[in-house]
From TrEMBL:
Family: Belongs to the DNA mismatch repair MutS family.
Species lineage: Bacteria, Pseudomonadati, Pseudomonadota, Alphaproteobacteria, Rhodobacterales
GO MF annotation list: ATP binding; ATP-dependent DNA damage sensor activity; mismatched DNA binding
Protein name, per record: DNA mismatch repair protein MutS
Gene3D superfamilies tied to this protein: 1.10.1420.10, 6.10.140.430, P-loop containing nucleotide triphosphate hydrolases (3.40.50.300)
Taxonomic source organism: Salipiger mucosus DSM 16094
One cellular component (GO) term of this entry: cytosol
Chain ranges of the DNA mismatch repair proteins mutS family domain: 334-350
PANTHER family according to UniProt: DNA MISMATCH REPAIR PROTEIN MSH1, MITOCHONDRIAL, DNA MISMATCH REPAIR PROTEIN MUTS FAMILY MEMBER
InterPro entries with a match to the protein in the record: DNA_mismatch_repair_MutS_C, DNA_mismatch_repair_MutS_clamp, DNA_mismatch_repair_MutS_core, DNA_mismatch_repair_MutS_sf, MutS, P-loop_NTPase
Annotated GO biological process: mismatch repair
Keywords, in A-Z order: ATP-binding, DNA damage, DNA repair, DNA-binding, Nucleotide-binding
C-alpha cells in the first residue's frame, strides 16, 4: 500500500503540467492526497517489509517505544544483563560479582563464598535474595533480575504481539481511507491500461479506428496482435496484413466464407478481426492501417475442438451446443466468427449442418460474420446468397511442396493440401504415401461418380508398406571415423589424448 501510494504520487508529479485527455485528467486528481496515510505508513514500516506478517519484523525502529524495548531485550538480552552486573558490582563493592545462567536456576548472581556474610546482612540482603550455597560460591537473585529474566524470555513473543497489534491499527488506518484508496487504484488502472495501449499503438503502428452507428466492417491491412508479436520474437517472417470487407448492405447479412489450405491462416484471420472489433470498442487503437466499424452488440465465436465429458458432452455435442447458442442469440448487430463448424461428425452430416447454419446466419440472424471451412462445396452458396462472399488464403505450390503466403484474397479454394501439411508435421512416409493413393482414388471416384469405396477396395492394400520395407543394406566400407574409433584404446589414454582424439574424429567428419 505504501509503495503503491508513493508510486501514485510520483506518477502525478511526473504528469504535472502535462495536458491529458478528459478521462485521464479526471483520474489524475485521484492519484494524490494520501499525505497523512503515507506519512503514517512511512514512519511505521521498514523499507522492505517481509512477505508474511506472521513472523514480524515489518515495523520500523523508532515507531513504537514499547516495541523497541521488547526488541532490544530480545536481541541484546545479554548486553542488558552485563550492564546490570556492572551496576551490582558497584552497588555491593564486590568486583568479582557475576550474573550467570543455568537451566535449573535461570539467571542468578554469584559471588565467592568470602562475600557471603556481607551479601547476607543489611543493607544488601534487602536487595539480594539468597538462592543457593555451593562449596565455593553463594548465589542470589533480585526482584529486578527475576523480572528482567521473564521479560527476556517473553520479549520475543511480546515484540511479535506488539507488531500484530500495530499491524491491525495500520490496517484500520488504511480501511478508514478505503474509498479514497480505491479511487486511486481505479485511477492507476486507468492510466495503466491507457498508457499500455498507447504504447502498443505507437510501437506497433496501430491506427485509430472509426466507430459509428453503421453496420460497416472495413479493415485495411489488419493484423493479429499476438501472432504478430510471436513472429517478431521468434525472429520469423513478417506478419502478412489482410483486409476485411464485411460491411453489411441495407439490412442484409455480410458473411465471408473463407476456404483455404490447412495452416494457411484462416483461424488467425477470423480472430484478428474479432480482436480488432473488441479493441476498437474498448477505445483502443487497432492493429490495422485503417478500420471503420459499425457498433457491434456481441461477438460470438465458435473455435477449436473441446469436450466436457464430466458434464456429459462429447466433442461434437459441445460444438453443437455452442452453435445453437449463436443461432438463437445473434442479432443483426452481432459479429460472428465460426471456425470449421461441423467437423466432429461424418462428412455429409457436417457439411449439411454447416450449410444450414450459414443460411440461417444469413437469412435470419443477418450478422456480420466470418466462416472458415474446409467444405469447399459451401462456396457455391456465395453465388446464391446476397452478402455472402468467398475468400481464400493463398498458397503457392513449389516442387510438390506448399508455400504459405498468408494472403487473404477473393475467391474459393479447391483443395486443402491436408496431406502435404500432414507431411510437414512429420507423419511417417508410408502413411503419407498411402494417404496420397487413397485421396487420388477418392477424387477419381468422385469424378467418375462411382462408389469411392469400391475404388479403395481396388487399391493394392500393401503397396505403400511394401515400398518402404527396410531394404537389407549391402555391407558398407567402414568410414574413416569408424576406422579411427576402432583403433582407440580408451583405457590407455590420458584425458588430454582423449580430448585430442575427439578433435581428430571431428576433423575426419569435416571432409
Ligand atoms: N497473416 C499471417 N502472417 C504470417 N503468419 C501467419 C499469418 N496467419 C497465420 N500465420 C501463421 O500460420 C499459422 C497457422 O495459421 P492458422 O491456424 O490460422 O491456419 P488455418 O488456416 O486455420 O489452418 P487449419 O485449417 O489447419 O486450421 C499460425 O500459427 C501463424 O504462425
Ligand atoms: Mg484453423
Amino acid at each position: 500500500m505504501r509503495n503503491a501510494l508513493t508510486q501514485a504520487e510520483a506518477i502525478a508529479a511526473a504528469l504535472a503540467g502535462t495536458e491529458l485527455p478528459p478521462l485521464l485528467d479526471e483520474a489524475r486528481g485521484a492519484l494524490t492526497g494520501h499525505d497523512e496515510l503515507l506519512a503514517l505508513l512511512d514512519a511505521a514500516l521498514v523499507a522492505e517489509p517481509p512477505l508474511l506478517a506472521r513472523d514480524g519484523g515489518f515495523i520500523a525502529e523508532g515507531y513504537d517505544a514499547q516495541l523497541d524495548e521488547a526488541r532490544k531485550l530480545r536481541d541484546e538480552g545479554r548486553g542488558v544483563i552485563a550492564g546490570m552486573q556492572a551496576d551490582y558490582a558497584e552497588q555491593t563493592g564486590v568486583g568479582s560479582l557475576k550474573i550467570k545462567h543455568n537451566n535449573v536456576l535461570g539467571y542468578f548472581i554469584e559471588t565467592t563464598a568470602t562475600h557471603a556474610a556481607k551479601m547476607q546482612s543489611p543493607p544488601l540482603n534487602e536487595t539480594f535474595i539468597h538462592r543457593q550455597t555451593t562449596a565455593n560460591q553463594v548465589r542470589f537473585t533480585t526482584v529486578e533480575l527475576t523480572e528482567l529474566e521473564t521479560r527476556i524470555l517473553n520479549a520475543g513473543n511480546e515484540a511479535l504481539e506488539i507488531e500484530k497489534r500495530l499491524y491491525d491499527s495500520l490496517k484500520g488506518a488504511i480501511l478508514e481511507q478505503a474509498p479514497r484508496v480505491s479511487e486511486t487504484g481505479q485511477a492507476l488502472a486507468e492510466f495503466d491500461v491507457t498508457i499500455a495501449l498507447a504504447d502498443l499503438a505507437q510501437a506497433q503502428d496501430w491506427c485509430r479506428p472509426t466507430v459509428d452507428d453503421s453496420r460497416a466492417f472495413a479493415i485495411e491491412a489488419g493484423r493479429h496482435p499476438v501472432v504478430e508479436r510471436a513472429l517478431q520474437q521468434q525472429g520469423g517472417g513478417a506478419f502478412i496484413a489482410n483486409d476485411c470487407a464485411l460491411t453489411a448492405q441495407g439490412d442484409h447479412a455480410a458473411v465471408t466464407l473463407l476456404t483455404g489450405p490447412n495452416m494457411a491462416g484462416k483461424s488467425t484471420y477470423l480472430r484478428q478481426n474479432a480482436l480488432i472489433a473488441l479493441l476498437a470498442q474498448m477505445g483502443s487503437y487497432v492493429p490495422a492501417r485503417s478500420a471503420h466499424l459499425g457498433l457491434v452488440s456481441q461477438i460470438f465465436s465458435r473455435v477449436g475442438a473441446s469436450d466436457d465429458l464430466a458434464r456429459g458432452r462429447s466433442t461434437f455435442m459441445v460444438e453443437m451446443v455452442e452453435t445453437a447458442a449463436i443461432l438463437n442469440q445473434a442479432d443483426d448487430r452481432a459479429l460472428v466468427i465460426l471456425d470449421e463448424i461441423g467437423r466432429g461428425t461424418a462428412t455429409y452430416d457436417g457439411l449439411s449442418i454447416a450449410w444450414a447454419t450459414l443460411e440461417h446466419l444469413h437469412g435470419v440472424n443477418r450478422v456480420r460474420g466470418l466462416f472458415a471451412t474446409h467444405y469447399h462445396e459451401l462456396t457455391a452458396l456465395a453465388g446464391k446468397l446476397e452478402g455472402v462472399d468467398n475468400a481464400t488464403v493463398a498458397v503457392k505450390e513449389w516442387d510438390g511442396e506448399v508455400i504459405f503466403l498468408h494472403e487473404v484474397r477473393p475467391g474459393a479454394a479447391d483443395r486443402s493440401y491436408g496431406v502435404q501439411v500432414a507431411q510437414l508435421a512429420g507423419l511417417p512416409g508410408p502413411v503419407i504415401e498411402r494417404a496420397r493413393s487413397v485421396l487420388d482414388a477418392l477424387e477419381a471416384g468422385e469424378r467418375d461418380r462411382s462408389s469411392p469405396k469400391a475404388l479403395i477396395d481396388d487399391l493394392p492394400l500393401f503397396s505403400a508398406a511394401a515400398t518402404t520395407e527396410p531394404q537389407p543394406k549391402a555391407p558398407a566400407e567402414p568410414s574413416g571415423v569408424e576406422t579411427r574409433l576402432a583403433e582407440l584404446l580408451p583405457d590407455e589414454m590420458t584425458p588430454r589424448e582423449a580430448l585430442q582424439a575427439i578433435y581428430d574424429l571431428k576433423g575426419l567428419l569435416g571432409d
